[in-house]
Structures are given as C-alpha cells and as structure tokens.
Write a structure and sequence with these properties.
By secondary structure, this protein is mainly beta. The protein has no helices and nine strands. It starts with 8 loop residues before the first strand and ends with a strand.
Length: 83
C-alpha cells in the first residue's frame, strides 16, 4: 500500500479492494488506495474531500459510503459517498 495508514476502512467493489485513509503518521489523512488482486497492484485514487477518521465503511450498488466520522475533535453523524 503506497500510503502508511492505521485504523483504515475498506470496501470491495468489482474484485477491487478500496482502502480509505484514517490515521497516518501526521494525523487524519485523505488518502484512498485501491488494490487489484488479479494484477497484484496498488493504485492511488482521488482523495477523500476532508480528512476523517474512526468511520465505518459499506459498499452497496457499486457505491462506497463512509459513516459516522470523526474530524477536528468531534463526531459528525453523517454519511459521505465516495464512489
């Protein structure tokens, strides 16, 4: 994985694993990486619009959602559509 992450979230769409930034070495990150197991290849995707951490992920109908996010010392009871 190109970006070192901790507490990351992930989801699977069409045989591709998507990993979303959570905590990096300098705080919350916006990184989105995808892994193609058939090619054994990691690629960077468009970033999450705002740094978030401590979230849940879900994939439904080829869309990925981040749910109940933490940012800037407070929780946001919200959902963010990523893809």
């Amino acid at each position: 994985m190109p970006t070192p992450l901790g507490w990351a979230g992930g989801a699977v769409i069409n045989d591709t694993i998507f990993v979303f930034g959570d905590r990096g070495v300098s705080g919350d990150v916006t990184a989105v990486e995808k892994y193609c197991p058939l090619r054994d290849l990691w690629l960077s995707e468009s970033s999450v619009p705002n740094p978030r951490s401590r979230f849940m992920t879900a994939a439904l109908n080829n869309k990925i959602y981040l749910i109940f996010q933490w940012a800037i010392q407070k929780y946001f009871k919200s959902m963010m559509l990523l893809r």
